Amino acid sequence: MRDSEKNKKGRTEESLAHKCLDVAGVIIVVINADQKVTLINRMGVEVLGWAEEEIVGSNWFDNFVPEDERDGVRSAFKDIMSGDGGYAKYYENRVLAKNGRTRTIAWRNTVLKDESGKIYAALSSGEDITERILSEEALLKAREDLEDKVEERTVELKRANEALEAEIRERQRAERVLRSILEGTSSVSGEEFLRSLVRNLASALNFRYAFVGELDGSGKSVRTLAIWANGGFAGNFEYSLKDTPCEQVMGKEICVYPKGVARLFPKDHLLAEMGVESYIGVPLFDAEKKPLGIIVGLDDRSMDDRNAGVVLSIFAQRASLEMARKKAEDERKKSADMLNAIIDNATAVIFMKDPEGRFIVMNRWYEKTFGIKSGDLLGKTDYDIFPKETADRLRENDRRVVYGGVPVSMEEEVIEPDGLKHTYITVKFPIPGFPGAICGIATDITGRKRTEEELLESERKFRNLTENIPIGVSITAEDGTILEANPALWKMFGCRSKEEFLRSRIQDFYVDPAERQRFIDTIKKHGIVKDLEVLVKRKDSTEFAGALTSITQTNGSGGTEIIGIFQDITGRKKTEAELLKAQKLESVGALAGGIAHDFNNILLGVLGNVSVARNYLKKNDRVWGLLSEVEKAAGRAKGLTRQLLTFSKGGEPIREVAPVGALVKDSASLVLRDKDISSSFNIPDDLWMVEMDEGQMSQVINNIVLNAEQATDGPGAIEVFAENVTLRPGDGLPVEGGDYVKITVEDHGAGIPEDIINRIFDPFFTTRQKASGLGLAVSYSIVKKHKGFMRVSSAVGKGSAFCIYLPAVKQEAESQKEAAKTGSSKSDGYVLVMDDEELVRDVTGEMLEILGLKAVFAKNGEEAAELYRKAKEDGKPFSAVILDLTIPGGMGGVEAVKRLQEIDPAVKAIVSSGYSKGPVMSEFRKYGFSGVIAKPYRVQEFSRAVMDVLEGTAKA
């Protein structure tokens, strides 16, 4: 019973102790000898932020003391637990809270002992002093900041005092400078003032150079008026403002460069030549604030005078006044000189007389006209020059002017030294400020009647020209009333007479009346309309395009008239449409040229190997026939490539002078063979020669005749004829004037609708299924590259006519072409083959072997030149060289043949390519080649080209 009561009492005391700990305003924590927490109160839990069960049992130092303080705190704990009385009763350290922040705690420590007196734990009471420490730190920093600011303010006040003392000294010095300059310039004016100013400025401000300059009329240069340099005056000069420091000053504001000005303006060579280091400039303005000139000071040292700008600005106003006065005097002198120049150089007689009629002024033209020097005539009267009756009339006219007091214009007749009577229109007027005196200006109008007669004749010629030129000319009112028109205009609009045309209004001929209003608005705004394209109609309502150029003029009654020049530009519009077609072909050419080079190399591998293989077979061999079919297919692919190449800039024809008549007939007949269409040919025997690529031109005829055949629905007829024609530049065709062969293919089929006729030459345009749309486009491009032209005319339901114009060559063709050499020809020797494609090299080597020749290969021009040089040095030169024109990333054929010619001027080189952007293939001899062969080729073609070069029979 006692024990129970005793236990109950113990629990009550323990509970009371816990409550006391929880209400304590400090942290209470008990740490045992194992450094683990055995008790912590509510304040400790709140500070650390952990739950009590998370804290109790945990190692205090490992979990709640920052690592950088852990060793020191453990050492203090050990001292406390040692119980020797040397432990620290007061200790400060940081603890780790759950949120990762630290709090600074001031600890008071003691130990707990058991009944035997043994120390088993440490009891610590801690006060959170974090905020106090932060406040102390903030207070300390604030005190340090205050001390810094006090120190800074003390320094500032000291500097301000020093600056004030310096400013007082500078002001005293500026006053001395101003007084010095004022004393030196106060008693002078004009140019002398400017000279005195620059001298005193340089002296007072210690400048090595000083000058005053005025802006020239262009505003781009300065002319100096006074210069002080190196202790004396220097000669004036003019310099450009561009890229100088003065450019930054003129018309703007004062500009100072205390040092390094020559480096800042490196293009100002004068600064470098004069050794200038510092610069100051002040602009000068006139009374209207317009730029007038500049005052400049320069020195070979850095500028430290802060008052120099103030001084220069003070004297800038006085300098501006002096310069303005000088400018005004110059203008007055210039005006007087100009007046004298006008009087002396006028092509009219000018004179002045005093009240008694004596001459006081006469110009040079008076002297020249009457053969009298002014010195001999001054002080004399008209009676000393002319007969009395003439002098009486002249004097009477003078009196009329004096009595009337206003200018009078009159005709006066005199006999001149040439003995002829001359008529003058004379204007006489009183001279202000000189009562009774007059001035006269007389113009010789003797030739006026002659001029009037000439004008009448000119007007007659002009009218005759207007009536006969093929360009329409008109005069109309703003409301559209036609006031005048030449025959070309009223005939152009289908009128039978001028009167019929004048009865109409000009807007009646516009297809869209709104176009007339836009024309009126434009000419009202600008006074002129140039080459305005308008759509108009004739009396019969047929439409055509015209170009209108017009200006306005004021008639005698003050109204506005419109003078117009009108041209029928229907032909020009057609030409522009043709040019647009050509531009479309060029865009396709970019695509075609891109694939041509690689495709022809691949095609050569097929066609060449088939051709080589057939040389090792007999014609009755089954494989021979199969290879023939492959060769035909490759040949069709070759033809397609040639068609594509026709668009590209590389598809240049390889032309020869030849008769075109037989080619036209043969090509057309081949297409129409076995067709249910009749054909007729009208090709004269005297047809001129044409320089052409026969293969390409045959392709043109094939395409056009095939197009005509397909346009003919069922049985029909196609007519083919040719003729010699001479074109003039004004015929409306987009070719130069000269001699041409005109080839026409005409069908009587369905015709071409008007809405698509301008598109038939576009690449890939077709109205038929299973058609490529390349035939007419290819043909157009081929003819264009032969410097010719192709056009079409058509009427729906009646048929179409395609006309080809080819430049003629008036010379005889070769009577017979040389028989083709075949692969059976044999030779010997070595041939150098340069090509970047291994496939091409292999095929070419096989073909050379058939000819009995041995091949040596090179991948590019550099390698080819080295092999050729070595073979020549070894005494085993190559018989010929075959060079690929294009080597991507390496030296191609054109550059390579130049290298070879340097090694051997007699080199026999053959150029080969499937695609070339230049004329090398068609003009190979210009580039140093002896022969040419286009890829892809067969043994026969290859053999012919090689043997021609080896035997020296290749044609240019």
pLDDT below 50 for ≥5 consecutive residues: which ranges? Answer: 813-825
| Sheet with the most strands, sense and barrel status | 7 strands, antiparallel
Give the beta-strand count: 34
N→C terminal distance: 144 Å
Radius of gyration: 55 Å
Mean pLDDT, rounded to whole units?
79
Strand-residue proportion: 15-25%
Name the overall outline.
Answer: flat
Structural class: alpha+beta
**Roughly what percent helix?**
40-55%
Number of helical elements: 27
Short key terms for the protein model shown above:
34 strands; 956 residues; seven-stranded mixed β-sheet; 27 helices; alpha+beta; single chain; seven-stranded antiparallel β-sheet; flat
Report what the structure shows:
- Mean pLDDT is 79; it is low at 813-825.
- It is flat, with a radius of gyration of 55 Å.
- The strands form six sheets. Strands 6, 7, 8, 9, 10, 11 and 12 form a seven-stranded antiparallel beta sheet that branches.
- Helix content is 44%, strand content 24%.
- A hairpin with a 7-residue loop joins strand 16 (421-430) and strand 17.
- The relative contact order is 0.04.
- It has 956 residues and is of the alpha+beta class.
